[in-house]
Specification:
Length: 188
């Protein structure tokens, strides 16, 4: 059965309302927003060309306490800002029913960027991280199915460290976010 977010369209808050209401990580989030730049003029033009479409909607499941939200959503906001696609934020804890439709490897991971048509039929989703940065977590989950194992927490800490290394110090990873969102948008 295909997924639908019809009942959530119009129920979220705007990206600006999310930023204004942040109680955690606001300065870091805004810092990443200020560092956003287009990887290429071609990318910018593709996203701007979405203004010609009125058939798309975007919902982003997220929360201000999440490090991946703080890293990735500024790039998502930056890219979507020029598209004209109506974009709403759903705070995860207020929309667990929707979150549970978009689990990552069986868990609640955010951000999840959901693209739907005007009727709410889900066309595609992105998140919680660029694929290259997500690879260590995929490998960890496959290699560590037992959450009670003695080395689970140590292995998880090592995985999170590797994810941090893959993000890097600067905004370079944002180009991967743009590239993956572009590929998704070009698919429908």
């Amino acid at each position: 059965m295909s997924k639908s977010v019809a009942e959530k369209l119009g129920k979220g808050i705007s990206p600006q309302q999310f930023v204004d209401g942040m109680t955690k990580n606001k300065e870091t989030f805004i810092g990443w927003m200020e560092q956003f730049s287009w990887p290429s003029q071609e990318d910018r033009e593709l996203f701007e060309s979405m203004n010609n479409r009125d058939d798309l909607r975007c919902l982003i499941l997220m929360a201000d306490w999440c490090g991946d939200v703080v890293r990735n959503v500024p790039a998502v906001f930056g890219a979507l800002e020029v598209t004209g696609i109506p974009t709403e934020v759903l705070i995860m804890e207020e929309h667990l029913d929707t979150m549970d439709q978009f689990l990552t490897m069986g868990g609640r991971s955010i951000p999840i960027v959901i693209f739907a048509d005007t009727g709410g039929a889900v066309l595609g989703q992105w998140g919680p991280r660029p694929k290259r940065i997500q690879e260590p977590m995929v490998a960890f989950k496959q290699a560590n199915p037992d959450r009670e194992a003695a080395d689970y927490q140590d292995n998880l800490a090592a995985t999170r460290k590797e994810i941090g290394i893959r993000y890097g110090e600067g905004p370079g990873y944002q180009a991967e976010v743009v590239k993956e969102l572009r590929a998704l948008l070009e698919s429908f």
